[in-house]
Automatic annotation (TrEMBL), chain A:
InterPro entries: CcoP_N (IPR032858), CcoP_N_sf (IPR038414), Cyt_c-like_dom (IPR009056), Cyt_c-like_dom_sf (IPR036909), Cyt_C_IC (IPR008168), Cyt_c_oxidase_cbb3_su3 (IPR004678), Cytochrome_c_Oxidase_Subunit (IPR050597). This is Cbb3-type cytochrome c oxidase subunit. It comes from the Bacteria. Binds 2 heme C groups per subunit. NCBIfam families: ccoP (TIGR00782). Residues 113-203, 210-291 form the Cytochrome c domain. Heme c 1 binds at C126, C129, H130, M268. Residues 1-13 have a biased composition (Basic and acidic residues).
Automatic annotation (TrEMBL), chain B:
InterPro entries: 4Fe4S_Fe-S-bd, 4Fe4S_Fe_S_CS, Cyt_c_oxidase_cbb3_FixG, Electron_Trans/Redox, FixG_C, Helical_ferredxn, Ig-like_fold. Keywords: 4Fe-4S, Electron transport, Iron, Iron-sulfur, Membrane, Metal-binding, Transmembrane, Transmembrane helix, Transport. GO terms for molecular function: 4 iron, 4 sulfur cluster binding; metal ion binding. The chain crosses the membrane at residues 45-64, 98-119, 172-189, 209-226, 353-371. GO terms for cellular component: plasma membrane. NCBIfam families: ccoG_rdxA_fixG. The lineage of its organism: Bacteria, Pseudomonadati, Pseudomonadota, Alphaproteobacteria, Hyphomonadales. This is 4Fe-4S ferredoxin-type domain-containing protein. Residues 267-296 form the 4Fe-4S ferredoxin-type domain. It comes from the Bacteria.
Length: 294, 490
């Protein structure tokens, strides 16, 4: 030890590192040596890690990043995690498959499971058109209300999900077709105007009594076959009730007129081939819970 | 280096300018092995007793049973992650009760502050796990290798069968203690007898092996080889406590007013001209932190008071009064040094009063909260999408999710009553309740259940409020939830 060669700080009595900035010197309060060793270990570990795991990005001429000898891949890990989740769910999914829908809805445990599963599947697959919580939109029926064009029972909802509506590829699909009365020349423009007044009058909203009386025989001739003599609709033919407060394509005069003139036949795809049976059942229970169904 | 002054270190050091920068190795100090000597005295005894008590609680507590009824864990202290409950004797905490845990931690922190401002680092010196296990490990070390002098000799000696067997024995016992410590930790998270038996059969959860392994290693290294380095370099508390202590705190203090000037005493010398410190170095030899208490308050000092024991023993031998090193306040020592009468020790000070008051307030709030904690919790979540729908008859319907939490261990039947403006009707999905005003909802013991409820009302009511009242059919315990009803206003 050669004290003479060391620079000792006057005030603290501690040796300095010899570094000086504007007269301010750095004291050398030594760190524990094991800290240094820990640092060396992290460097060694980094080297080991780079050999084991994908580490170095694609360099020019190399094509792809280094794969690491462990062959780790996050994509594979994710796929495996998803598969694991699926198989973990299978245990309860099997119970859903075996139970009928009424049992699922009234059994507390099954209901909770089906609602959780149904809600997430609905969000992924159905909410795009029907809206979150089945709120609906113009042209896309609301599922949270009490109006059901086809069938609001648990089994009816399941059938609709499986086979869709006006889905050409499915022979069992729910189907109805309203003619485009104006566009195809079945009725004249003024007749369509009168009919729109007549439909409005079914919910007491028409102020043109003459038009309504002009259209009455036309309605009985052209529309009553499907929508019924009193306009209450006929579910067997897929004809909506025209006397309630619900309007799938809008309930104002111009909406109704456009519907009569052009017809509106929207589609829903069949989900039979796209979703597994347990998911379809879960969605049916979930949709039924939105409104209480029928 | 026998410095005669405490504060000004420069007095004995050559003041130099210039010189060469230090070599690289000098930037990192090698750890100096500390060989604490066994102290004898009352503080050593207190430390043995505290060690026995704290270790006894740590190793034994998971085995204490507490009957809570059928189907509920009977472990007195259990953090049951699987069913999301924390049990502490008669207290059961749900995730919803997390504020009690926060309150407990705040109380513990304030207690630490209060004790520090009164008695310095009592926590560090007596009860900190690092101190307790280090003390235990030194005890084992002493059993195998002897006391300070013998250990120093052994470490210097060349390797021999004797040295090897002593070292191996020591590390083996250390590892057993470490494993026992890591193993005891996992007992707090699972049913102790089950996980203890399952652990050795390979049936325990993976996390149990993982944490037992980690705690085994940390115990072995922190108490065996890291020791004082943990306190000095890893622990934030020595830094924080500087802000919590003051000149009024009773700290382990070298009374330099009495001790200086120090130095070895010749038989012929009179005590009148000199201090009581005879530079016997006993206080340094027993110190587990390897410091000299005579240098004043230091970051490294954990206030374990072993130097008091060592010094008192020496004072008795040389016929001087005990207490050259003692629990004392800086202000008192400084006053005596100036020849004044030390002021009366003030326990009640602004900061101790503040800590005590805040602790009382939080304590009262927690006791009140625990005493009135209900076993029934309900929440009503209104559907956000859609906010409301119009039904075919023009009425407005809103959807709600009622969450029922039964914190009692037995199943209960809840009566649901929904009140609102006239013309209101409701239905609960999956329940048949035609025509009944109130509805019976069964909830399992320790159960959380969700019910979907649809409420319909006439349009035109001015912003009605819906009241969901859930009542225990037997005890009458009730919880009321209000929720809004949208879409009816026009």
């Amino acid at each position: 030890m050669t004290d003479e060669t060391k620079d000792i700080d006057k005030h603290s009595g501690v040796e300095t590192t010899g570094h000086s900035w504007d007269g301010i010197k750095e004291l050398n309060n030594p760190l524990p040596r094991w800290w240094l060793y820990v640092w060396y270990m992290t460097i060694a570990w980094a080297v080991v890690y780079m050999i084991l795991m994908p580490a170095i990005p694609a360099l020019p001429g190399m094509g792809t990043n280094t794969k690491g000898v462990r062959g780790h891949s996050d994509r594979v890990e994710v796929a495996k995690a998803v598969a694991d989740l699926q198989s973990a769910r299978d245990a309860q999914s099997v119970v859903l498959l075996d139970a009928n829908l009424e049992t699922i809805e009234t059994d507390r445990t099954l209901q909770q499971f089906a609602l959780a599963m149904g809600e997430s599947a609905f969000g992924d697959n159905c909410a795009t058109c029907h809206g979150a919580g089945g709120r609906g939109a113009i042209g896309y029926p609301a599922l949270a209300d009490d109006v059901w064009l086809w069938d609001g029972s648990l089994d009816g909802i399941e059938y609709t999900i499986r086979h869709g509506i006006r889905h050409d590829a499915d022979d069992a699909t729910r189907f109805s077709a309203m003619p485009a009365f104006g566009r195809d020349g079945l009725l004249t423009g003024s007749q369509v105007d009168d009919l729109a007044q007549y439909v409005l009058s079914l919910t007491d909203r028409s102020d043109d009594a003459e038009a309504v009386s002009r259209a009455a025989p036309i309605f009985q001739q052209q529309c009553a076959t499907c929508h019924g003599v009193d306009g209450t609709g006929d579910r067997a033919q897929g004809a909506p009730n025209l006397t309630d407060a619900e309007w799938l394509y809008g309930g104002r005069e111009e909406n109704i007129r456009a519907t009569i003139y052009n017809a509106r036949n929207s589609h829903m795809p069949a989900w039979d081939d796209r979703l597994d049976d347990a998911t379809i059942k879960a969605i049916a229970v979930y949709v039924h819970s939105l409104s209480g169904g029928e | 280096m026998a410095s005669s002054t405490l504060i000004d270190k420069t007095a004995t050091l050559p003041a130099q300018q210039g010189g060469e920068p230090p070599r690289h190795e000098d930037l990192y100090a090698k750890r100096k092995q500390i060989y604490p000597k066994l102290a004898h005295g009352k503080f050593r005894m207190v430390k043995w007793l505290v060690m026995a008590a704290t270790l006894g609680v740590y190793y034994g507590l998971p085995w204490v049973r507490w009957n809570r009824g059928e189907g509920v864990p009977d472990q007195a202290v259990l953090a049951d992650f699987a069913s999301e409950k924390f049990y502490f004797f008669f207290i059961e905490l749900w995730p919803q009760d997390i504020h009690f845990m926060a309150g407990g931690l705040i109380l513990a922190a304030l207690l630490l502050f209060l004790v520090t401002s009164l008695l310095g680092r009592v926590w560090c010196g007596y009860t900190c796990p690092q101190t307790v296990w280090t003390d235990l490990y030194i005890w084992v070390e002493r059993a195998f290798e002897g006391d300070r002098a013998a250990r120093m000799r052994l470490d210097k000696a060349p390797w021999s069968v004797n040295k090897l067997s002593r070292k191996l024995g020591k590390h083996a016992v250390w590892l057993i203690i470490a494993f026992w410590t890591g193993g005891a930790f996992i007992l707090y998270w699972h049913d102790a007898p089950t996980v203890a038996a399952g652990w050795f059969k390979g049936e325990a959860p993976l996390t149990a092996y993982w944490f037992a392994g980690i705690l085994t290693l940390t115990t072995y290294f922190l108490a065996g080889t890291m020791r004082e380095q943990v306190c000095t370099y890893m622990c934030p508390w020595p830094r924080i406590q500087g802000a919590l202590t003051d000149e009024q705190a009773l700290n382990v203090t070298y009374r330099y007013d009495r001790g200086e000037p120090r130095g070895p005493k010749r038989k012929s010398e009179s005590w009148d001209e000199r201090g009581d410190c005879i530079d016997c170095d006993q206080c340094v030899q027993v110190c587990p932190m390897g410091i000299d208490i005579r240098d004043g308050e230091q970051l490294e000092c954990i206030h374990c008071a072993l130097c008091i024991d060592a010094c008192d023993e020496m004072m008795v031998k040389i016929g001087r009064p005990k207490g050259l090193i003692a629990y004392d306040t800086q202000i008192a020592v400084a006053a005596r040094n100036e020849g004044c009468t030390p002021p009366k020790h003030k326990i009640i000070r602004a900061r101790t009063l503040l800590y005590a008051v805040v602790m009382s307030v939080i304590g009262v709030l927690m006791v009140w909260g625990l005493a009135t904690k209900s076993t029934l919790e309900t929440n009503v979540l209104k559907d956000r999408s859609p906010p409301y729908v119009m039904l075919s008859d023009g009425r407005i319907q809103n959807g709600y999710t009622l969450k029922l939490v039964n914190k009692a261990s037995e199943p209960r039947t809840m009566l649901l009553d929904i009140a609102g403006p006239g013309g209101l009707s409701f239905k609960v999905i999956g329940m048949d309740h035609e025509g009944s005003e109130t509805l019976e909802l069964p909830v399992e013991g320790f159960g959380v259940d969700r019910y979907r409820i649809l409420v319909a009302a006439e349009a035109g009511a001015p912003r009605p409020q819906i009241t969901f009242t859930v009542t225990d059919a037997e005890t009458g315990e009730a919880d009321v939830n209000m929720s809004s009803f949208r879409g009816a206003e026009q």
